[in-house]
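dumping this here so i dont lose it
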């Protein structure tokens, strides 16, 4: 018999999948952790569980407590589901620019959702500051009643990836991994895996795959936070160095435009059957660049962070893609034909 006792036990242990197109293109084994298969549908279930377990152990999150967080969506879904299974309530602050599918998923997960305007971190009304203030107010009213998860700067986030994601990658490749690449939001995944793999194999090459509009790639390459352009990807990129990202052993970085990443996820669905979100496209583009840099015969690992169904109205919507200057594959046009206007129909 093999039975998982609860939702927490079902987080992680995801399959490592060979990406056929990326492997054939580069002559490398390009592999990806299928993190959309987590209970809440994303890599952030790991972060949520890692943060909650750490807070429970430290006595910061008491039985029947309230979890408070600022999140672009996936961490909130993970916290709400992990919280529900462990007897905690969840209050989420998120920017009002995130996909309707993610907002609905959060509400379905039972979270108390507060949408706030999308402003830079330096603005006191950034969603993360809203969450911190809310927890502080609750704790003034009743000490210990609310816990601010603080995914960006609470390093229990990256430590959990070192203890789980990195170990799984090491074991699933039997130590043959030559390179790891992924994007960063909090930086927990990239930093945690980087620490875990470098400890086992110092020569492993670690790369950041950064969407245009984020300042992190320039920071890794030139030591200075600077950004240009923008991206429709969600949950990744940053204008600051978080505690989770800080000091991580990252060797190089790639700045990836949407015109490079989105076609990869369209092709992955059409030819390989995996339906993934925008950050996974950025990760795949980074994996192809890293594989080319390392040369044929190497093993490169990346992350499929969440499912494309969470972004149907953007990533799989021909008019939206055209508006953004992103190519629309023929099969997607056939699947979602644009209703002709009166003028063009005549
Ligand atoms: N991909 C998606 C879809 C995400 O939601 C996030 C986190 N917001 C990331 C990637 C980045 O992960 P991390 O926070 O560990 O850097």
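and the seq i came up w/
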């Amino acid at each position: 018999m093999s039975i998982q006792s609860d939702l927490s036990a079902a987080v992680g242990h995801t399959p490592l999948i060979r990406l056929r197109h990326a492997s054939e293109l580069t002559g490398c084994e390009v592999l990806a952790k299928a993190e959309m298969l987590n209970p809440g549908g994303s890599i952030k279930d790991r972060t949520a569980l890692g943060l909650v377990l750490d807070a429970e152990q430290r006595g910061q999150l008491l039985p029947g407590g309230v979890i408070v967080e600022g999140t672009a969506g996936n961490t909130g879904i993970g916290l709400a589901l992990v919280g529900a299974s462990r007897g905690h309530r969840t209050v989420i602050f998120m920017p009002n620019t995130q996909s309707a599918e993610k907002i609905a998923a959060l509400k379905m997960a039972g979270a108390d959702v507060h949408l706030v305007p999308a402003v830079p971190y330096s603005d006191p009304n950034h969603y993360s500051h809203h969450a911190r203030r809310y927890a502080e107010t609750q704790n003034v009213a009743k000490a210990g009643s609310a816990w601010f998860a603080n995914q960006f700067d609470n390093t229990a986030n990256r430590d959990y990836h070192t203890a789980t994601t990195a170990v799984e990658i090491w074991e699933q490749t039997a130590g043959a991994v030559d390179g790891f690449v992924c994007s960063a939001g909090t930086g927990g995944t990239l930093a945690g895996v980087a620490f875990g793999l470098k400890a086992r194999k110092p020569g492993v090459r670690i790369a950041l795959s950064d969407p245009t509009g984020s300042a992190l790639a320039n920071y890794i390459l030139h030591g200075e936070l600077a950004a240009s352009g923008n991206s429709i990807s969600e949950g990744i990129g940053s204008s600051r160095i978080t505690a989770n990202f800080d000091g991580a052993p990252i060797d190089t970085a790639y700045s990836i435009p949407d015109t490079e990443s989105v076609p990869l996820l369209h092709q992955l669905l059409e030819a390989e059957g995996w339906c993934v979100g925008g950050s996974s496209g950025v990760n795949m583009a980074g994996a192809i660049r890293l594989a080319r840099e390392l040369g044929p015969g190497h093993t490169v690992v990346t992350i499929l962070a969440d499912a494309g169904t969470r972004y149907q109205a953007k990533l799989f919507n021909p008019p939206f893609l055209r508006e953004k200057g992103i190519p629309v594959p023929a099969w997607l046009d056939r699947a979602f034909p644009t209703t002709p206007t009166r003028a063009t129909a005549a």
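Strands lie at 16-18, 29-34, 66-70, 89-95, 112-116, 146-148, 179-182, 205-211, 252-256, 299-304.
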